[in-house]
Amino acid sequence: MDTPIGPKATGLPPHPTAGQEHYRACALAYNWTQIMLTIRPEQMAVLDQGARRTFHAQILSRLMPNLVPTCACEARSNLLDQMEAWHLRAIGYGITSRRSVGRWLGVHLTMAPDFDLSDRVRPLLELADLTGDNKMVLLFGALRNTGA
Predict the structure, then answer these.
(1) In this predicted structure, what is the pLDDT of residue 45?
(2) Are 89 and 95 in contact (CB under 8 A)?
(3) Fewest C-beta atoms under 10 Å: which of 1, 23, 53, 73?
(4) Does 2 fall in a domain?
(5) How far apart are CA 85 and CA 104, in angstroms?
(6) Claim to verify: residue 32 and residue 99 sit in the same structural domain
(7) 25, 79: one domain
(8) Is 33:27 a contact under the CB 8 Å cutoff?
């Protein structure tokens, strides 16, 4: 005797419009809703990376006329890769909000690439009692005071 394959094997009708209530009842019975809504960490990382890449491309497009010479002569794809590295460093310093990360990337692109590696800036970024947003406010205040 042949074993049924496909919709007949699960008792589901052959077409989704053929019985939405039946599908819903089967999904609950088989606990499919939990299976289908589980996103593995690897999948989430890929989704995050794609969203970050789009975010970086938007920032780069806006700041293109104001890039520092070292960034202006780089290929767009290389700059986007570098922006990913800068973004990950920002996360390491606790700078995670969209606005603060955008400002962080803007400083790298328009003023000083890798400014966060400076001995003058790093202590400020490593303060544990400040939020990422507060660190960016202090950073911009310091930049204003130095005339940069």
Answers:
(1) 77
(2) no
(3) 1
(4) no
(5) 12
(6) no
(7) no
(8) yes
Q: How far apart, in whole angstroms, are the C-alpha atoms of residue 109 and residue 32?
A: 47
Q: How far apart are CA 13 and CA 77, in angstroms?
A: 48
AA letter at 147: G
Cβ neighbours of residue 76 closer than 8 Å, sequence gap 6 or more = 60
Residue type, 37: L
- Give the pLDDT confidence score for residue 122 in this predicted structure: 87
Residue 73 gets which letter from DSSP?
Answer: T
Residue with tokens 């089967």: 26
Count of the separate structural domains present in the chain: 2
Between CA 128 and CA 98 the distance in angstroms is 20
Show the domain range for 103: 41-146
Contact in structure between 56 and 83 (CB atoms under 8 Å):
yes
- HSE-CB for 105 with a 13 A CA cutoff: 29
| Angstrom distance (rounded) from CA 137 to CA 134 | 5
Instruction: Give the relative orientation of helices 98-110 and 76-92 as an angle to the nearest 10 degrees.
Output: 130
Q: Name which of 8-22, 53-67, 116-130 the model is least confident about.
A: 8-22
Residue 146's nearest CA partner among 113, 114, 111 is 111
Q: Which residues contact 19 (CB under 8 A, 6 or more apart)?
A: 13
